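[step 3/7] fold_predict: job queued, chain A
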Amino acid sequence: MAQHEIVARRHLGQNFLLDLNLTGRIARAAGRLDHATVVEIGPGPGGLTRALLAAGARRVVAIEHDRRCLAALGELAAAHPGRLELVAGDALELDPATLTQEPRKIVANLPYNIATTLLVGWLARIREYESLTLMFQREVAERLVAEPRSKAYGRLSVLVQWVADPRILFDVPARAFMPPPKVTSSVVGIVPRAAPLFAATKIELERVTAAAFGQRRKMLRNSLKKLGVPVESLLQRAGIAPTKRADELSVAEFCALARAAERSRAMLP
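[step 4/7] structure written:
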């Protein structure tokens, strides 16, 4: 880091994890790696990258936006011929599934400012990955695994749990990073489901959850008006009481709403 003058930049959401015990633990949490291509987002100076290579990853594809870090990672790639590929670019504009061959996994200490956006973008092709082992702020991790009627339960909970099984594996204290963030972090293991939990289209489920949780304190008969379909008949078709609120519905009920909304939309003139 000193040689390449690498200092964490706040606007890039950089908090470097260099603790060998923790990077090794994250690599082990991802399971077997010797058969797969591992995609790493935002490797920075390569702390986790080294752990993935040491854990036997067949190939690591590291996507990095900061060219200072790319220069440092280039030395690591030279030390592991054919096993580390560097991709210069913005992870928000790249699809890891198009850059790699199956089987593939994602293992990353995600930049906190884009972590949720990245994950939601990957959900459309989630079954193309064996697993995702990702670091989030503890608050976001809790949203991923939250159950109905809890404060953390929201749109992200529904969309992720619909297509995957997320589990919080362990916490990482702020002092482990350089510089230390102001929050505790959590490593989350996400295993794609063979098929979505319940029938629904992704676009309609996104619409329904956005409307419902956009006004989560309101009853559904009011919050769902933004959908542009008759709300009372929509709720009746889905078998859901109009006085319920978003955080009271299960993933199954949101999927029922999405199916009903799709049918209602098809009937509009």
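[step 5/7] annotate
The mean pLDDT is 92.
The radius of gyration is 21 Å.
exit 0
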